[in-house]
Specification:
Elements lengths: L1 H9 L1 H4 L3 H8 L8 E3 L2 E3 L2 H37 L14 H13 L10 H4 L1 H10 L3 E5 L2 E5 L3 H9 L12 H7 L8 H14 L2 H23 L8 H18 L7 H16 L9 H8 L3 H26 L13 H9 L10 H32 L1 H14 L7 H4 L3 H6 L5 H16 L22
Antiparallel strand pairs: 1-2, 3-4
Helix pairs in contact: 9-13, 11-12, 11-21, 12-17, 13-15, 13-17, 15-17, 16-17, 17-21
Keywords: Heme, Iron, Membrane, Metal-binding, Monooxygenase, Oxidoreductase, Transmembrane, Transmembrane helix
Pfam families: p450
Main location: membrane
Length: about 475
């Protein structure tokens, strides 16, 4: 049994050699299954099976304990030696269960007042551990450490990452189904290629050409609101419809109803991902079990993933049918059109696959929709609370536009409104400003004073 001897030597500093002698001592007991034949001892099938399987089982157990117990403990000691503390590692699940309890408890408490300081509600574990362990700390998702960095200078170092030290993790599970290998999750040359393509789709001139579609969608939404004057409006749901309409029109050249299945599928898939975010997968065992048995959520996620893919493929096929006489320019200059063109690039290094098209569409649908939706809702809340800023914005808008429809050049001259969101993506800035401008221009509105529905609005935010 040379492999057992080698194993004993390798893990001697950890196991102190006690496990291996026990295994070897047990092997003679299997002689009970041996048979005598012609003066020779012949081992029975069970003994042979045990002799071969026992070392494998021991190796597997040691590898499992090494990954889930020994390595995390050694890593935590190393972090502590470097001055980075955090909640102690707990076998197998890390701090996942502790995080779930904190988030459940925080969400169950009603908010005493409307404030934009909701970190303790949405991320109670980060708020608690920042206070307990400092600006930089480490916690555990299963056996994997998560290093939290909040010091601006260190954040800048990680963000710049000139030496490519901080790499993205491999996406898997629900995250893989949501983003595929799109811009959010891809790395290296592929990320650079897709980033260049996306930048081209949303450069300044392209964004300016989207403004009329944004204005049209805003006017449709406000007309719908006028039918509910004096009633409560669930603005989160309203903005969900609105942002879906804007994204469909500006990036994919379709109405909201054509992309409805995509938005609904992604929303449901996002819910499943959030629901299972802190369900720790047991190393080695979970991957094997998932091939034999799938949970109800996993089965539903696979169906949603296929449904989303089918709808996007249908959109791509329809756009490809628009190409006449090999002229790719006829398939459009919006985001979807640029993706379709990239499929047929002469330069193979710039060409993308149909899977890339699907993944980038899913990424844009998800990130564009959710970020704009939540940020718009929050902007309305802050305007409702801080009426002085509301009056400042109103005065500036009326001075520049009066009763005219907002345009891209005029929007960029609004200093007061732009100052609120100068750190966000320009496309989000434009959408928010257009909505604020048009709302402010409604003659019978003295103040923006939205009432959130009786169901606690903040519970509708993804936690």
């Amino acid at each position: 049994m040379p492999q057992l001897t080698l194993l004993s030597a390798e893990y001697k500093h950890w196991l102190d050699g006690r496990v291996i002698p026990i295994v070897i001592a047990l092997l003679p007991n299997f002689g009970n299954t041996e048979k005598e034949k012609g003066g020779e001892t012949i081992m029975g099938p069970l003994a042979i099976l045990v002799c071969f399987s026992c070392p494998i089982l021991v190796l597997g157990l040691l590898a499992f304990l090494n990954k889930t117990l020994r390595k995390p403990i050694l890593r935590q000691r190393e972090f502590n030696a470097r001055g980075i503390r955090g909640p102690p590692y707990k076998f197998l699940f890390g701090n996942a269960r502790e995080i779930q309890k904190m988030k459940t408890a925080a969400a169950a408490k009603p908010m005493s007042n409307l404030s934009h300081e909701i970190r303790t509600r949405l991320e109670p574990h980060l708020a608690t551990w920042t206070e307990a362990y400092g600006k930089n700390f480490v916690f555990w998702m299963g056996p994997e450490p998560i290093l939290v960095v909040t010091e601006p200078e260190l954040v800048k170092v990680v963000g710049n990452d000139a030496e490519k030290v901080y790499q993205k993790l491999e996406s898997e599970g629900y995250i893989k189904k949501l983003f595929g290998d799109g811009l959010v999750t891809s790395r290296g040359e592929k990320w650079a290629k897709m980033r260049k393509l996306v930048n081209h789709a949303f450069q300044g001139d392209s964004l300016k050409s989207m403004v009329p579609a944004m204005v049209a969608s805003t006017q449709v939404m406000l007309q719908r609101w006028e039918d509910h004057v004096g009633e409560e409006i669930e603005v989160f749901e309203e903005f969900s419809l609105f942002t879906a309409e804007v994204i469909s029109r500006t990036a994919f050249g379709s109405s909201y109803f054509q992309g409805k299945l995509v938005f609904e599928g992604i929303t449901k898939l996002l819910h499943l991902a959030t629901k299972n975010a802190f369900n720790i997968q047991i190393p080695g065992l979970s991957l094997t079990c998932s091939k034999v048995y799938k949970s109800k959520d996993e089965i539903e996620a696979e169906k949603l993933e296929q449904q989303i893919r089918d709808v996007i493929i249908a959109m791509v096929t329809k756009r490809e049918e628009m190409v006449t006489n090999g002229d790719l320019d006829s398939c459009g200059s919006d985001f979807l059109g640029l993706l379709v063109k990239a499929r047929y690039e002469d330069d193979e290094s710039k060409r993308i696959s149909v899977d890339d098209v699907v993944d980038e569409c899913k990424t844009f649908y998800l990130t564009g929709h959710e970020t704009c939706n939540i940020l718009l809702t929050w902007a309305m809340l802050l305007l409702s609370i801080h009426t002085d800023w509301q009056e400042e914005a109103r005065k500036e808008v009326m001075t520049h536009f009066g009763s005219r429809t907002p345009d891209a050049d005029g929007i960029m001259k609004l200093k007061t409104v732009r100052n609120w969101y100068e750190e966000y993506l320009i496309i989000i800035i434009i959408i928010i400003i257009i909505i604020i401008i048009i709302i402010i221009q409604i003659g019978n509105c003295v103040n923006i004073s939205f009432h959130f529905a009786k169901k606690n609005y903040f519970k509708s935010l993804p936690l």
